[in-house]
Amino acid sequence: MDKTTAPPPVSLAEAFAYWLKLGFISFGGPAGQIALMHTELVERRRWISEQRFLHALNYCMLLPGPEATQLAIYIGWLMHRTWGGIIAGALFVLPSLLILMLLSWVYLAFGNLPVVAGVLYGIKPAVVAIVLAAAWRIGSRSLKNGWLIGIAVAALVAIAVLRLPFPVIVLSAALAGMVGGRLLPAKFQLGGGHGSSAQASYGPAIIDDATPPPPHARYSGPHLAKLLAVGIGIGVVAWLALALLYGRQGPLAQMGWFFTKAAMLTFGGAYAVLPYVYQGGVETYQWLTATQMIDGLALGETTPGPLIMIVAFVGFVGGWTKALFGPDHLLLAGAVAACVTTFFTFLPSFIFILAGGPLVESTRGNIRLTAPLTAISAAVVGVVISLALFFAWHVFRLALPPLQWDWAAVLISALALLALVRYKADTIKLILACAVAGLVVSYLR
To answer: Which of 311, 285, 286 is nearest to 296 (CA)?
Structure first.
């Protein structure tokens, strides 16, 4: 391709094909997914310039919700209006939803088979290592001084010892950041993010640095109000339909409301909101057990798409467990519940981008993270560590009195953590290796 001129305009059909492909290959968590989009859209296809890509990413990092999904929605919207954003976001999520529903069915229907149990035995210690590695990554980026380390420790104590709800911890961290940003601004400056290479150039892009926003991306107050009304209205109508059909206290209506709240709390990525999902799904509503929650995270790590898609597993197991449509229709109940949880989890992301995108385009160059969000990022580290400790407590113990440790599981987890932190091992390959180790250990026992 000629690097001296911009590529020709991209049709919606061509964009559709790319977003569908991305939905099936987007392994590696948000960092890997963002890297995939950067390589393809900035470097190879040149649909968008480096600066415009980073500008969109900065906005998505400010928002609750899966930033890689929101970045796909943003670029799709910028190129092909509202339908472009909807297509990009839906195709980013849909393959993961379908795969997770299939895996959830296999897990519930055949999970007691020795082969499946052996595979899960090896994957569970890998999950502990993956969560600890995530805490290490987030902490190395976020905990730049003693004040932020103190917030992380306070968050760990608050959720693990005091059992405070996750929203309270987020709000408290934000308040601490507001105060700290005023009194000690140097201590609450944003640390590094995904890196910056704003000066990099790969040739002219379709949406280049100097390309003016297209008409649909220009800010308009009435248009913003209209999109907010439509987006919120869709969510309200969908929830009311569930409440009227299946009861306000029915599992589907409860899932819709709970996962809407969860979507608003995903600052810092999916690992940050998992304790909240655990509190609601396991303790409050009893849609699934603690062991099933760990298994769900293991399955989520093996599929493409955002990790927050574990909510589809939670919904599927909840629908199956509650037998929403009777004991003869468990698969249908699980599939419907998985779709409900996915819809309400991701609807806010579409609203944030489609409604807020024009405002962001009008202020290009001025978007930055604030002190409250810096404090929230620090609190997320403590929350993620508490999640790892919770998983370790359930994975490393043998169900035998008195308390005994499963040293084989501990060894698998330690080796997996070493591979992730020291050797930057690929997550999917690591999970496959641990699955094989689990089969071997199960066979030898």
So the answer is: 311
Instruction: Tell me the chain's radius of gyration from C-alpha atoms.
Output: 22
* Cα 84 → chain centroid: 21
Rounded Cα gap, residues 141 and 377, in angstroms: 9
Q: Tens of pLDDT along 63-91?
A: 788 888 999 999 999 999 999 999 999 99
Tens of pLDDT, residue by residue over 142-197, are 788 899 999 999 999 998 888 887 778 878 988 998 888 888 887 876 543 444 44
User: Under 8 Å CB-to-CB from 385, ≥6 apart: which residues?
Assistant: 132, 135, 152, 156
State the chain's mean pLDDT as an integer: 85
Q: Which residue has the tokens 């807020």?
A: 356
How is 334-378 classified by DSSP, letter by letter?
Answer: HHHHHHHHHHHHHHHHHHHHHHHHHHHHHTTT-----HHHHHHHH
The answer to whether the pTM exceeds 0.85 is no
- Among 357, 198, 379, which Cα is nearest to 276's? 379
Kindly tell me the burial class for residue 3, based on how many C-beta atoms sit within 10 Å of its own C-beta (0-12, 13-18, 19 or more). exposed
Contact 289, 282 (CB under 8 A): yes
Confidence band for 201, pLDDT divided at 50, 70 and 90: low
Please give the C-alpha separations between residue 441 and each of 113, 115, 120, 419, 444, in angstroms, as whole numbers. Answer: 15, 12, 12, 19, 5
Q: Say which residue the tokens 């927050």 belong to.
A: 308
